[in-house]
Amino acid sequence: MKPVNVGIIGFGTVGAGTVELLLANKEIITNRTGTDIIIKKIADLDIESDRGVSVDRSLMTTNAMDVINDPDIDVIVELIGGLTKAREVVTGALKNKKHVVTANKALLAEYGKELYETAFNNGVSLSFEASVCGAVPIIGALKNGLAPNRISVIKGILNGTSNYILTRMTKEGLTYDQVVQKAVEMGFAEDPPTLDVNGTDTVHKLTILISLLLGYPVALQSIYREGIVNLTPDDIRFADEFGYRVKLLAVARQRDNGIEARVHPAMIPKDSILARVDDEFNAIYLEGDFVGPSLFYGLGAGRRPTASAVVSDIMGIARAMRLGYRGFMPPLSHFSLQKEVAIHSMKDLHSAYYFRFSAFDSPGVLSMIAGILGEHDISISSVIQKGREQNSSVPIVMLTHEAREKNVIEAVSKINRLDIVSGPTVMVRVEED
To answer: Which of 182, 205, 270, 339 is catalytic?
Structure first.
């Protein structure tokens, strides 16, 4: 059997991990695929730095086109990240009728439609298990194991950096800035971790998952996004008093007339499974009409976990080539492109809410705030009022019953304009099981 030749473009953290795994577990990989997988070329702008893995220097090149145009290479692994150059690499490889493996969630979220079509039209595979939650095998599960099911809901903690920050804020009472500094020093976060903490990374991943569910690439911009930067230790503590943990949550829920899709901080019951997912771990909870509830849990990033997902895709392609497949599964696993599905407006969301108002300590403040909420059909379920803060204001903390987001936005806007309020209201949605 002819070996499967692989070209790797991008020799950073994940690229080096991929090479390390292909070499370290070569015997296992060969036994499980029935063929040898050979690293034919590696391209990177920096071919001098030590990556902690021994590589034959003759394999190295600084020109990505040397890899794409090599007629002996069967599979291109794109691990350079970013958009412009990565898009050129992946498109060029697919048009050259080479199979592609990528971990680039931003690329798929932004340009998925054109890349999925290019792969299908050229009869090659575009595989991306590593693009969502690293070693957590959610892509393969949706494409294969769960394929017969109608998935009604997905809830996920999809970003390890944000989850680490919220875990430390919860367990140590630290501020956001204190935890971020610590996370950067320990290598858990970029400096600054903007795309992680503002929800962009999570939206990229949720976009891919929804596209797999629907069989149609959804528009990244249609998914609501909100980050964690405005949360304080007080909000974490109040959530605990109410019986909740705060997580950056991705939610997708199928409705009869469309789909609900959102990423934002959420208060979830302390006794729920997702509430107990801590530090840099990821988890995805979903419900299928025949399988019921399922949970996928594991490390969502890092050199080795992500490399494992990359190599699993390479192995899948190698197995198919060994069996002589002439066609490959479409990237979204649907052989007929589905119709575009409407994404619901956030204004139509119905949820319970947490509010923290900073108000001056004067008579009638609570009744005034409650009155405005009542005018907008928002009823209060619990209230906590603490002592005076340093700026002579008092925090008034509330949980509401289920309300419509449109009404909540209008009510909070009106409350924020009151003279008795000393700062913007903090609002967190409550996601019950």
So the answer is: 205
